[in-house]
Write a structure and sequence with these properties.
This protein is an all-alpha fold. The protein has one domain. It is 76% helix and 0% strand. It has three helices and no strands. The longest helix is centred in the first third of the chain and has 62 residues. It is elongated, with a radius of gyration of 25 Å. The N and C termini lie far apart (74 Å). The structure holds zinc ion. Zinc ion (ZN) binds next to α3. Its main location: cytoplasm. Its cofactor is Zn(2+).
Amino acid sequence: MDKREIFVKMASIEERIGDLYKEIGELKDVIVVLMEENAQLLVENQHLRNRLDRKKTGSQTKQKGTSPVAKEKAKKAVVGEGYDNLARLYAEGFHICNVHFGSLRKEGDCLFCLSFLSGGPQK
Ligand SMILES: [Zn+2]
């Protein structure tokens, strides 16, 4: 292999690496979209589960005649569980604030999310 051949080969490899680099960038964008979609689906799923649980709790209350205090307690447990899920979502790197909900936190902590978290489950 003469020197010119080596140079041509190097140029071709460089070009292929450039293409791969571009492809990796595109895949990274796709992964971000999928992760955000997944986070939003997790929250939506939790909301639906909470609604289902409330419905079940409500019908059980009717059947067994549970006291209003017990009903309120069950409701608070569901709210607490939803709060825990949001806190976990934030810890996993997603926004849980109204401003950027469900999108990936690319720049560390978010003040909107943190103010929501410091409000606690009862608010
Ligand atoms: Zn946020």
